[in-house]
Amino acid sequence: MGTAPQERRAATLVMACVGVFVAYLPVTTVSASLPAIQRALHASTSQLSWVSDAFVLPMAALILTAGVFGDVHGRKKVYQAGLALSSLGALVALCAQSVQAVWAGQALAGLGSAALLPTTLALISHAVPDPRERGRFIGLWATSLTAALALGPVIAGTVLDHFAWRWIYLLALPASLLAMAFAAKLLTDSRAPGTRRLDWPGQITAAPAITALVYGIIEGGAESFTDVKVMVALSTAAVAAVGFVLVERRSSSPMLDLTLFRSPAFTATTLIAMISFLGLIGFFFALSLYFGMVQRLSTLDAAWRLLMVTSVPLLLGAPVGRLVHRVSPRVLIPGGLLVTTAALLTLTDLGAHTSFGSMAWRLALLGLGLAFVITPMTATAVSAVPFHQASMAAAGNNAFRQVGAALGPAVLGALLSTKAVDALPGHLTDAGLTGRTVEQVRTVAEHGGIGAVAGVDLGADTPRVLGALSEAFLDGLHLCLIVSAVLTLLAAALGALMLRRPRHTAPPAGAGPRQEVPAPRHGGATSLAGNAAER
Q: Which segments cross the bilayer (predicted)?
């Protein structure tokens, strides 16, 4: 098929950009609103972790299946279904009267995002079959994704300065519904050729493995890792993971071909993707609570600080993308990870009264390091495998990145809560509080989490209790930053040892473009999925 008409390509690009913006807007919009949600719904720290993870878990568990479903049944249909689920999730959360209802809305929105991420790229690939020309369109798509992450906190802050927390979900409703209406008229459907089919055994084993793992980590951190339900969850995750490996090895149409991991570069970039998003999303979770519970900032004031991290990758995405073809990933990715490690370590002296000016350059430095990691990561993964496996390599990299994003609030939230609760009695004593007051606060913290302590009224002792709570929280935050720095440093070492310059694989000689219905290149969109998502 020849190139689509200019107006059709432009419409496809706009629809794809709107779709990915809707898909990623809840990530930082909700993260920035966590303190407000916690206060309004009296949520514990572990319950608050599930507000973020209820969105990311379905996205991580179903992103591979959603891409295959679009290839088999039509990408336009999956795109519209994703928008419908996103709007439904926003509506449920908008009307929520409990934290459990927020979880339900977040989960529905996560399902929508799982459908939108691979499908928006596939639609672009169908409209622009020339890989070189397609790069410009993918760059704009990637900018929309990063813009959603960057603008989310500002949108949340603006809303929360004037309205209740639930109205942060309002924007997704008209955006989704309008996109659905325009897509019905403007988008052309497409499918992948060949005999590819849905891998139900792989999906049935992958989803429980991811969900049980994150559940076990969240509940283990909130209670105890020796608790029966936690041990059952972690055992279930291990059994399901083994089952996934076994069924994928035997599948004639696997969701994730495990032979990809024979490539050291693919393995390295996949692990780096998971670790970096674990740290990034977990960092947003912990930092949002710090701004709300310790510095007691408004959501908008907190948003400007978070923007210092997210705006740098947004501004540097295109320049760093050009460096991918000139600088070895063995230098680029580990170098970015080392900068990220340094930035995390500089933040370990954050205090209750640290100024914006003192913090801004360190947050910007963190964003700079992430810009040099996020942009080239999946491009390296895709170039490390044979051409016919490029689509699966990018989809796998995306899936592991979302697993890291799901684990971030779980792991860092558990560390933060455990350390803060353990440190709180000592800080209460240092503040001159003794006896019954200390025991009462400690009991509230152990049963309701550190957030519950902020709502306890102890009369004249309340200011000292809040001061002790801030110090205990900072102990937990500093531990999270050190752990994140160590993980990032390990990822840098992994990259330095295993990465090589991309081979820029091309189709086999004489293969030519494969025909689709109507005619996109097989795997072309998905092979670009991770690359674009990283920019």
A: 12-37, 49-69, 81-103, 109-128, 140-160, 166-188, 200-218, 230-247, 268-291, 303-324, 331-348, 360-387, 399-418, 476-499
